[in-house]
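One thing: could you explain this record?
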Amino acid sequence: MYFTDRGIEELVDRRGEEEVSVEWLADRLRAFVDLNPQFETAVERLSSFLARDDADDE
């Protein structure tokens, strides 16, 4: 298990039943980067990864 899995598991435990829009997610990511600019590159990479998920095309 990666260290980041703890945060992912917390997210699932706390909000796993909720439905969210991509717009909501984008707003939350922007707010996170505003508070933590050192993570700008990581958030950009994650956002690009999610935007380019070709699995939905199958």
